[in-house]
């Protein structure tokens, strides 16, 4: 996981160990295993928070000396929802069950930029384009961060969800994030919107809808 703001949020929810990573620097089995060993807990819940880390996390669970269970969070918003669902007074299996349910309730979005010319399906994307994704599906391509983010938010809220959370990234100012939040509240009346500093590189915004 990358982003100092996101790391603080996870720690505030009781997460003991955070392994830095991202889209292009996923942690190894050795790094995850070292993190598991550093924890004082008798058993460990792993939140991959990235579909590309899921297999590695499951391999760690297979070879770990202490009990490890993997909650299959495929995005950071799913991981945050799972962490919120954790209860110390529940058993390991019961926590896994409730945390998986929490992941399933979340729709995840991201707004980033293209570093090179590419093609997504039948859509041509040029270097420098702002790219908006919702649950792995391309939603919007443009040159305006706010417009692309709004398109992603609309898609995430289209299934009757009403709580939208924005995590603004490294390179986005608080003023820019506040302006976007106010514009979304005006454009999408009736929603509940929360705004947090994520500090993540590469992504202007991460979005979560429930």
Please, could you describe this protein's structure?
By secondary structure, the protein is an alpha+beta fold. It folds into two domains: 4-104, Rossmann fold (3-Layer(aba) Sandwich); 107-209, Hypothetical Protein Tm841, Chain: A,domain 3 (2-Layer Sandwich). The chain is built from seven helices and ten strands. It has helices spanning 4-12, 29-38, 54-63, 76-85, 92-104, 145-156, 174-187, and strands at residues 44-46, 68-70, 107-113, 118-120, 123-125, 130-134, 137-142, 163-168, 192-197, 203-209. The strands form three sheets. The protein has a six-stranded mixed beta sheet. Strands 1-2 form a two-stranded parallel sheet. It has a two-stranded antiparallel sheet with strand order 4-5. Helix 3 links the parallel strand 1 (44-46) and strand 2 (68-70). Helix 2 packs across helix 3. The longest helix has 14 residues, at 174-187. It is globular. The two termini are 22 Å apart.
